[in-house]
Write a structure and sequence with these properties.
Elements lengths: L2 E4 L2 E4 L2 H14 L13 E4 L2 E4 L37 H11 L3 E3 L8 E2 L1 H25 L5 E2 L3 E2 L5 E2 L2 E2 L1 H18 L4 E4 H4 L20 H10 L3 E3 H9 L4 H4 L3 E2 L3 E9 L1 H5 L7 E8 L2 E9 L11 H5 L3 E6 L3 E3 L18 E5 L8 H8 L1 E6 L3 H10 L4 E4 L6 H13 L3 E3 L21 E4 L2 H18 L30 E4 L6 E3 L3 H11 L7 H12 L15 H13 L6 H17 L6 E3 L3 H10 L3 E6 L5 H7 L8 E4 H4 L6 H9 L6 H4 L2 E5 L2 H11 L3 E4 L15 H15 L12
Length: 745
């Protein structure tokens, strides 16, 4: 009998366990993004799709979901042998006992339609660690079992294979199993090997979305497994990171989330012995926008001159983060020479080893770039940018896919960088079948302004010289439609950006109804729940005002907040004690929301404002708010980053009244109605912001957050993207004079 591993324990492969292992393997593939194929081996259950991965009796099921994995000694564990029938039950149990001290079991949402993203990110960090372990273990055995998935030719007609190894296969199976058993069948996951039908066994899906889902038996198995262990220190760090409130405060609808898995990026380099270039890539997107990236580098610290097992055990790192949370786990060598920005120093780039594109040479010449890294490994390129070893990475042809770029883009966004197609258009990660390949190429930079100049001022113009329309002549569903559609690729000189405050520029760090419910209990209103507080809060807020009525007078305590809080607490106006406790709770809540730690600033907003203002584009905050707003913005270090603040309690008019917008723009010296056409206003209310701005003649009224059902339609959810579009025409339509270029001359 062969031995299978599951949940940290080994057991003989009897008929019963063979059936269970097959079911586990089908669970691994239960919600993958699958390409339809004519030759398939499938099992149909309840009209849905599961797949059997043929011949896989020794998969690394001892890692992950059900038990304690065997971690390298550099991370506090004991390294085990590779997954094989030679391991014994005693070996596995001994390793479990060793690893048990610093592991904690996390649980998925009780509602299969929801997911708590920070907890999920902690799981993915653990998955990346497991992936690194598997890659090192496969490497230590010597035989990588390389296959060619089908390569292509370079410009000099040299054939380059598209390699796949045993490590690719094992890591993807492990990763998808852990992800799907944690998150369930509603989570959309795109894995490279599965998408390309490159795992053993194939699958199809009989619905139009090309996603398969759990059947009842698989869902029951998910509940039975129940154990999802992660490092408790990592979990604490991930949960305490400053994720945007839209992600961190509570669970979100799982239908908004897409996950991209590249089990081993840089496989060709790996097969050729270039160990440091190998990475495990896990990217998470919400509403089509990358929000979290995890890059595992199994051979970080590699020394080719050292050949012993202890050296292998101490290798590796996992880098993780996202906008707001920052970039963690990088471990940069402090002795590394610091790069300077061009034109003070050369523009340093990462390129693929094999050239298949005629645009690369002229772009390199125009930018006077130096090559720091020449390997075909996108994940490694991103690490080099994050470490400060290069300014940009370029892949100017159709080559990369979403699993190559999602993780790196989230991490670069977190430090003020950018990933786009070759001409500066953002990619959309809403996970439809045609949108997986990045058919318009890829450019990435550590500095978003440098990136904008590189893509709009250099690459675009070099394309024109080559008399090539690529990538503009390519139908690419993976490209985000522009936020400012009417201004796209037109010579528009924007004058100002007007920004709503609440829910756009600043958001409560915790859900308001949770804060209200907590305060209610402190002051003796024990019947108040988050749900009841939310209902009452919305009811008061939705009460319409007369044309000239103000919701906020002064600090708003008597005119609005008292109504709101008393409704949430269900204060008995006829009871003196209830009134006393209600007023005390109201005062406490007023003070609570005056503290900066209870607010979160939209990631990238401050940098975007600085970029706009440095180019003469003014920024004004236009908000229906009480007179405490300027003080709150000052405490949040925003007040000096904008040109003016208009709040209705001071200005005398609330949006959507035309005078609210007129007085706001007058505060930044825009009074001519013709100039209103060159103003962008962004807000979260259809009535107050969109209708109000359009009614007064503002040229571009943008709904913050857009259409969550289809992020490609109205994707305004990032101030850096908005700033890109407002600045882009300066490069696209100006000459090459020094007044427009800052980095390349």
């Amino acid at each position: 009998l062969t031995t299978a591993f599951y949940g940290g324990f080994s057991f003989p492969m009897t008929t019963t366990t063979t059936t269970r292992a097959a079911a586990l393997m089908s669970t691994t593939r239960a919600c993958l993004f699958l390409r339809k194929s004519s030759s398939k081996t499938t099992t149909r259950t309840s009209g849905k799709c599961t797949s059997l991965l043929k011949g896989r009796t020794n998969l690394p099921f001892q890692r992950g979901g059900g038990g304690q994995r065997r971690r390298g000694s550099a991370r506090g564990g004991v390294r085990g042998s590779a997954s094989s029938s030679a391991a014994t039950t005693a070996d596995v149990v001994r390793n479990n006992n060793t690893n048990n001290n610093n592991r904690v079991n996390i649980q998925p949402s009780s509602d299969a339609r929801k997911i708590h993203l920070p907890t999920f990110v902690a799981l993915l960090v653990d998955v990346a660690e497991d992936g690194c372990d598997i890659i090192r273990e496969v490497t230590s055995r010597g035989d990588l079992a390389v296959k060619d998935k089908g390569g292509s030719e370079t410009l000099d007609k040299k054939y380059i294979m598209d390699a796949q190894t045993e490590a690719d296969r094992q890591v993807e199976i492990m990763a998808l199993r852990r992800i799907t058993t944690f998150a369930g069948g509603r989570l959309r996951v795109v894995g490279e090997e599965s998408y390309e039908n490159a795992l053993e066994g194939e699958a199809e899906c009989d619905d139009s979305t090309c996603f398969a889902s759990f059947d009842e038996e698989e869902e029951m198995m998910r509940k039975e497994e129940g154990n999802h262990y992660v490092d408790k220190d990592i979990l604490k760090e991930v949960l305490e990171a400053k994720w945007p409130p839209a992600i961190a405060s509570g669970e979100i609808d799982i239908s908004r989330v897409n996950v991209y898995v590249d089990p081993l990026d840089g496989t060709n380099e790996y097969a050729n012995g270039e160990r440091p270039a190998v990475t495990v890539l896990l990217g998470v997107a919400v509403d089509g926008v990358p929000v979290a990236g995890i890059i595992g580098q199994p051979f970080f610290g590699w020394n080719a001159n050292v050949n012993d097992s202890k050296h292998l055990e101490n290798l590796g790192r996992v880098v993780w983060g996202g906008p707001g949370a920052g970039c963690k786990g990088l471990r940069v060598d402090e002795t590394q020479k610091k790069l300077v920005m061009p034109p003070t120093g050369p523009h340093v780039v990462c390129l693929n080893r094999n050239i298949r594109d005629e645009r690369q040479a002229p772009v390199m010449e125009q930018t006077k770039s130096e090559v720091a890294v020449l390997v075909s490994a996108t994940g490694y390129h991103y690490l080099c940018l994050l470490e400060g070893r290069a300014h940009s990475a370029m892949l100017l042809r159709k080559a990369s896919k979403k699993w190559d770029t999602c993780a790196g883009e989230a991490l670069l966004r977190s430090v003020g960088g950018a990933v786009t197609d070759t001409v500066g258009r953002r990619y959309n990660y809403d996970c439809d079948m045609p949108g997986v390949p990045n058919v318009c190429g890829m450019a990435a930079s550590i500095d978003i302004d440098l990136h904008l100049e590189l893509t709009h001022s250099i690459i675009q113009k070099e394309i024109e010289k080559l008399e090539s329309l690529y990538p503009y002549d390519v139908e690419c569903s993976s490209i985000k439609q522009p936020i400012l559609k009417e201004a796209y690729r037109k010579n528009v000189a924007f004058k100002a950006l007007s920004v709503d405050a609440g829910g756009v520029l600043v958001t409560p760090a915790r859900a308001v109804h949770d804060v209200y419910a907590d305060h209610a209990k402190t002051y003796g209103f024990s019947d108040v729940t988050p749900e009841s507080a939310k209902k009452a809060f919305k009811s008061v807020f939705s009460t319409p005002l007369s044309e000239n009525e103000l919701r906020y007078v002064g600090d708003g305590r008597e005119s609005f907040w008292k109504k709101c809080v008393f409704a949430a607490l269900n204060v008995d106006a006829s009871n003196e004690d209830s009134l006393k406790r209600g007023n005390e709770c109201l005062d406490a809540l007023m003070k609570f929301y005056e503290q900066p730690e209870n607010w979160a600033v939209a990631p990238g907003a401050i940098d975007a404002f600085r970029r706009l203002r440095s180019r003469g584009i003014k920024v004004v905050v236009t908000s229906n708010w009480d007179d405490r707003l300027p003080n709150i913005l000052e405490k949040l270090n925003i007040i000096d980053e904008v040109d003016a603040v208009y709040c209705s309690a001071v200005g005398g008019f609330e949006k959507p009244h035309p005078n609210a917008f007129k007085r706001s723009l007058a505060a930044i010296d825009i009074t001519d109605k013709n100039d209103f056409k060159s103003v962008v206003h962004v807000g979260d209310s259809d009535v107050n912001d969109i209708f109000g701005a359009q009614n007064v003649g503002i040229g571009y009224a943008i709904k913050w957050g857009g259409d969550r059902e289809n992020a490609r339609v109205t994707p305004a959810f990032d101030f850096q993207e908005l700033a890109d579009e407002m600045i882009a025409s300066v490069y696209a339509f100006a000459d090459d004079s020094k007044t427009t270029r800052r980095y390349f001359f």
